Amino acid sequence: MQRAPTDRADVCIVGAGPAGALVANQLASDGYDVTILEAGRRFDFDERQGQMERSIRPGEPGDIWEMGGERDDWSNTGERTYPLNVARVKGVGGSTLHWQGMVMRMHPNDFDGSHDNDDPAWPIDYDDLRPYYAEAETALGVAGTGDNPFAPPREDPTWPMPGFKPSYSDSLFEEACSNLGIAMHSVPNARNSESYDGRSQCVGYGTCQPVCPSGAKYDATVHIEDAEAAGATVIDRVPVQRLVTDGDGRVSAAVYVTPEGDEYRQEAREFVLAAGGIEIPRLLLLSANEDHPDGLANSSGAVGRYFMDHLFAGSGGTLDRRTRQNHVGFITSESHQFYDDPGGAVEHVETGETFVAESDAAYSPIKLEFLNYAGPSPVEIALNGDDWGDSMLGELRAAYGNSIAMGGLVGMPPRRENRVTLDTTTTDDHGNPVPDIKWSWGDRVRRSIARANDIQHTVLNELGVDIEWTANVESGSGPAYHHMGTTRMGTDPDESVVNPRMRSHDLSNLSIASSSVFVTAGSMNPTLTIAALALKCADHVGERL
């Protein structure tokens, strides 16, 4: 394709994931000339069937979204290793090409700093985002049910589509949770429970991660295509090397390289960074110049700092009855009972036995999940085995069908020492220093994972599960790959990177639409909040234009 810069652009957006797509669509629909620069390629929708087939074949080489190699290298010099490339995608659509599709709103306590821990307040509150949350749910197409007693207030009790029904394994958990006084409720999903926005309803492939072949699960190509229909230009496979400033406190151009090695400058009136919580701080640091020796938008020294993620806690095993494991490829039931009150007691309704937190110290919010994809799939068992015919059938009957598990997320506090910097000893395919991730957990994260495990074990024991594994502090716990906090929002230019309108304190025409502006992590999956913030950012950019 033609990868030369557009002659005139009102807005240049770096990154074609959900944030970039929503900003582009809104501004292009409002009549502005929008150009999107994307480092990865455009994947053809017709490829998805083949991607799904490759993803379930054991030993299939490579990543179906083509991550890896010198282009995507990174370093770790922190306390813990961060496995960055396990779950990121460079391409038109970004991480929504392979995400799980869960879309919960963050709670008011997440914004106002009123959790019983040391999380600071955001410079905006829940009410500031309420209209944008509603707009984002409509844009993404969310299937939901108003049965969550712990959910934040809504302006409309309904969702764009009816929610998905609880799975069979959810019904097994329901009795145990009822005995323990733990409320289960449905999960809002950005996947179609019925036809929506010209896309199919979910047809149950069950391979939601890493790929949805039907297109029923939302991904950002939906709004990229809408933006293009409104006149936006998308240029793929053009990693931005640096941003250029004009000396008057403005960005003048984004410099990018084509696959052929040609270097171009894309000029625009406004620039929006929407490339995620790792690549955005990296680009700002790579753009250091005489006027900005520590990197762009970094007079506070906060660029790259306060890196956060969600940590997984889980446990599972087998039951002496069938569980219909892996019949559903996404989560249909959760419990947010321990979100605003993570230390809350669990009391058995019949016996009166009480299960309390082992410590009265601070916890992160805890989001509990009832997993529909516990244990190996029959396809995995069959393809990994050496048996055939009746022998293979016997192995399947013995190994499949009784697994059950719970999962959950806990958030990290924003720690200044957790950060993304540049590793000048290792370079990418264009000679740029790769991102270096310094990552550590801290006592609150460890305590919160242990607390989540205690609740999970209480439920599993009540259900009669033979517990065989636990993802805990010692083994199995790891990141949810929700990159947050590296260009935090704030009102003090000495402590933050962008203001509440998501414009850089230092550069008057540079905005950031990303989870990188999050002040705290909460424990809810971040994509709906990313979408809401992107729509808010688009409004503010439009006001300046």
From TrEMBL:
SUPFAM superfamilies: FAD-linked reductases, C-terminal domain, FAD/NAD(P)-binding domain. InterPro entries: 4Fe4S_Fe-S-bd, FAD-bd, FAD/NAD-bd_sf, GMC_OxRdtase_N, GMC_OxRtase_C, P2Ox-like. The keyword Oxidoreductase applies. Residues 192-222 form the 4Fe-4S ferredoxin-type domain. Residues 49-70 are annotated as: Disordered. Keywords: FAD, Flavoprotein, Oxidoreductase. Transmembrane segments: none annotated. Pfam families: FAD_binding_3, GMC_oxred_C, GMC_oxred_N. PROSITE patterns: 4FE4S_FER_2. Its cofactor is FAD. Belongs to the GMC oxidoreductase family. This is GMC family oxidoreductase.
